[in-house]
Amino acid sequence: MLFARRDKLKLGVVVFEITDACNQACKFCYNHFKGCEGYCAPAAPDYAMAHRTLKRLLDEASIASLSLSGGEPMLMPNIHDLVLKARFTGANVNILTNGTLLSDNDVKIFDDLGVGLIQIPILSSDAQIHDALTTIRGTWERAMRGARRVAERRKGWLAPVLIITRQNLDTIEPTLELYAELGATNILVNRFNVGGLGIGNASELSLSHSELRAAFKRADNKLKELGLRAHSGVCTPMCVLNPKEYSNITFTHCTTELMSRPLTINYRGEVRFCNHSPRVLGNIHDMPLAAILERSQSDGYFDKRPVECVSCRLWEQCRGGCRAASEQLYGTFDRVDPILSIENHK
Asked: I want to staple 184 with a disulfide (CB 3.0 to 4.6 A). Which of 4, 57, 149, 179 is the partner?
């Protein structure tokens, strides 16, 4: 056969960071480049580069679910064209946005294109608390306007995100009630995970282990009362949060098998372990994605077991929590999740 069809990689979930630019400066933001010394504002969105990278990615891989992220993806001109390109390949596409820039037209087009979920952080039922966490006044009102547009357009389309911090701890229950009022059935409840801008704000955002357990128990109880379930997408050591104690929340645990985990690729083509990890495994404009993953899987970087986890029977499930946060904080994947270093006040 003169032109044999090349077998594509089969990937489950890919986060595509279409821009580094953002219109907020959230205290908890984990974008790794925001935690570096000498950090300066990121470049403006580059549609041509993002389109070129997406084309290369889709040429090399068959992707079940592609999440467009940032930065703030709605800053990208012609984002709808990127969605269309991915949808043509059969990929489910989700939009991870702060919601403040979503227009009626955006929502209509995304609906017409069959976008799967639109994920928007609504950090509190209290506008002042939400705005304090985003550091910009008026963001709660704009995010809620966007969330309502999504919720009214299609039932169950909105996926609100609650990031539990010390600053919004007292409004967990009314915030979940707000999600229920919006008709949300896909809900994320995450803990604050140190990284990026969050490194400098960790002392005012972090909870002790006992406080975190109590917060998740309150969320779990409220979800049960509302007849809802939630997912926690931040890998957390099981010795800190035991999933068995929260029957209405499912928990993510982090595999180091690159072919079966959510990978992250930014608009420049840089491949990373996840959207929290700062370490670039390679660039798809320089090397085929399959070769990048094969090389990275075999170099031993992900094989080491943190000393705290050596004798732990939960290791195979837990994997030491979010060790990408360790990469940001300590510069290595060998360390256990930094949450274990937080004093556990009784």
From this structure: 179
